[in-house]
């Protein structure tokens, strides 16, 4: 019935190949540049390592030349050349003493010193040996440093000259030379990584100083990884293209062709009846239009649900990742601790935060799992008071400013025939929503009253709160999956799951909202008359927040120094920054409000800021989201801002507009932030 559509598949194939091959080639180019740059840096580092080693050898040679220059200008050498027959021996001994002193200042123990006169004849040496009677010709050509490969020695030659007259105007030159012979083996004792000398310039220029060393160089990156990446990516693209074509054919092409076939049949039907009955034809056409519009509406609704599901998946990924990010800071604190009491203190400080994060992740996962529940687990009767008490016990930690009064009006003498765990989650979800909507300030009331419907006994439960309001246009949508009024938190599944569980119990749930009185959720649950022990005395009357006390001082006395500013709603993360950068100037703020309040008091504070490191989410207590904070910040501060977050935000376009540098969620040193700032300018 349905014909194949080569046109649709060809267009899809072109788009698919274009969208996959372009990133593929771009990734290959980036990977190639990365490997090339890495190898270039490795070669540069290896050359620098060898150059450093050569410079150390050259430096030791310069010390030898310095010692020879001191000897050439010494009074003892002058006296030796001016010696008479009677004083020659004494002057030679004095000269040898000077040579020994200079020898002890050098790193090489076994070096031979020789004094050569202007005729090229050796007249003194140390260690003492028979004087060389051979006349050294062309000694002037060997001035400086010469490597004699035949003897495997390095020869240093320095001319002798000194001032003769008292007025320092005349000199005696070309009296002779000082020669020092240094075996290569002596150099190898001081520098064990030296294998051999290849060439040495007379003036010890590093450009012409070549050696062979046995040091471990960094290995260059192998292109094998790049080739494997190209091969695997190509195979993946081919398989993905074939698989996508099959899915496209099944879910898109076949359905479109089927729809086209149905529309054509409808149009043929209309054309056949058009001349006989125009009104009937118009009615059929209008009916076809309505059915087609309804079909499009359902498709749009499905698309919106998929988009909402994507947002939920993004939020769940962030909240699941958050405890692990906090774990990095915890491990950094543990590594920093030197004593057992410091470790115990760190564990004590982080434990409530870890517990709160894990409880919230568990709550999210329970919501996702309950979204597909079809059966209840009703084991035994349970009192409504017990469910309320368990709900309050399982609430997440409250912010420091939380203070909410709880009022009860419960009808006694009944027990509930319900799935205790899932009903408890309903109560937790409704109370948590109420607390967040009322900004943790105000009053919550919980009422229960018997209710009969079709000879069945139910308990009518009311959970309400003041200081919040749901617009009337949203009341018809709040029980739809993925619908949420929360900006940053919430899956949009809580109320949908609550309605599903209440319906599975045979009850119903509805919501009322009024600007003056607040919001109420009213639902019914199956019950039976049964006297159960009262637990009213154990129910909480007030919900109060808790605050984490930090041991670090955050006082700052402004001076001419620059400060690193950290803005993060988690006090433990701020404390970790403070401890790890103890030697640096750092100030932290737990919210943008604290930052701007501090700025209003200390207006010159902005001029002392080096960098600002900010979180993306500032918690429930702050009225700012990240973009609001940055917009206000850029009015007073134009320096570098680093976004330290545990979620992926590389595709956010506004970040580039505000010149934001994205970094990992961990502690950085000032030098690391400075380097990242420089890299952003390249």
From TrEMBL:
Write down the superkingdom of origin. Answer: Bacteria
EC number(s) for this protein? 2.7.13.3
Task: List, alphabetically, the SMART domains matched.
Answer: HATPase_c
In the record, biological process GO terms are: phosphorelay signal transduction system
The protein's annotated catalytic reaction(s) are: ATP + protein L-histidine = ADP + protein N-phospho-L-histidine
Q: What class of enzyme is it?
A: transferase
GO MF, one term, reads: ATP binding
Q: Does the keyword Ribonucleoprotein apply?
A: no
Residue ranges occupied by any Histidine kinase domain in the UniProt entry? 315-529
What are the protein's UniProt keywords? ATP-binding, Kinase, Membrane, Nucleotide-binding, Phosphoprotein, Transferase, Transmembrane, Transmembrane helix, Two-component regulatory system
Q: What is this protein called?
A: histidine kinase
Q: What is the scientific name of the source organism?
A: Silvanigrella aquatica
